[in-house]
Amino acid sequence: MTHPPYLYPGYRSTALRAPAQELIMPKLGPDSVELSSPVFGHQELGRLDEDLTRQHSGEPLGERIIVTGRLLDGAGRPVRGALVEVWQANAAGRYAHLGDQHPAPLDPNFTGAGRCLTGDDGRYRFVTVKPGAYPWRNHPNAWRPAHIHFSVFGTAFTQRLVTQMYFPGDPLFAYDPIFQSIPDERARERLVSRFDMDTTEPEWALGYQWDIVLGDTPMEA
């Protein structure tokens, strides 16, 4: 099974949002309002949206990294012109959000959000800093592995998929119920990026490759 179940007892917040009854899945196409709703386009993107390290007056603290890959459909074909968004914690493991109050420092030069459009080859690319692990109170001594949230939009605002990208070799994988909620081990591995020397830029940033394959990469319920 590729995708996590709606209800996974180890991930406590799923009990609050999982449906109590069997889902009704009508075979209907998108409504006209969905197709005519605003969709982000080239004119909506800022010049520095894909470089999270240059959005403020100074450079953020932490390990600078390049994260890139391709957005592909189930047949392996590139998905062109799709909006890809990312959001993440800073290098100390804290989000620039009022809801995050754990005692790690905020970075005034890092907001932790970016976006870009995929190219003709389906490729996206972000420059950022490697996020830190953080506590999340799901269970005693609970820590999330370092990760970056990804969101992919389709042809309408309501067509959105959300997933997470992890980093290789993280010792917290075995203790994280979100990662472990995906039943198939091979599917879990598809959420883990790979270090790539060809993407790495000398004396500047380490590089990671991670492809998103629609229908194959696990998505959040």
TrEMBL record:
What does the record give as EC number?
1.13.11.3
Q: Does the keyword Oxidoreductase apply?
A: yes
Tell me a Gene Ontology molecular-function term this record carries: ferric iron binding
Q: Which UniProt keywords apply?
A: Dioxygenase, Oxidoreductase
Question: InterPro entries, from UniProt?
Answer: Intradiol_dOase_C (IPR000627), Intradiol_dOase_core (IPR015889), Intradiol_RC_Dioxygenase (IPR050770), PCDO_beta_N (IPR024756), Protocat_dOase_b (IPR012785)
In which domain of life is the source organism classified?
Bacteria
**What does the entry give for GO biological process?**
3,4-dihydroxybenzoate catabolic process
Residue ranges occupied by any Intradiol ring-cleavage dioxygenases domain in the UniProt entry: 67-95
**Which SUPFAM superfamilies does this entry report, sorted A to Z?**
Aromatic compound dioxygenase
Answer yes or no on keyword Oxidoreductase. yes
Per its UniProt record, what PANTHER family does this chain match?
Answer: DIOXYGENASE, PUTATIVE (AFU_ORTHOLOGUE AFUA_2G02910)-RELATED, INTRADIOL RING-CLEAVAGE DIOXYGENASES DOMAIN-CONTAINING PROTEIN
Q: Which NCBIfam families does this UniProt record tie to the protein?
A: protocat_beta (TIGR02422)
**Can you tell me which family this protein belongs to?**
Belongs to the intradiol ring-cleavage dioxygenase family.
Name assigned to this protein = Protocatechuate 3,4-dioxygenase subunit beta
Origin organism lineage: Bacteria, Bacillati, Actinomycetota, Actinomycetes, Streptosporangiales
Q: Which gene encodes it?
A: pcaH
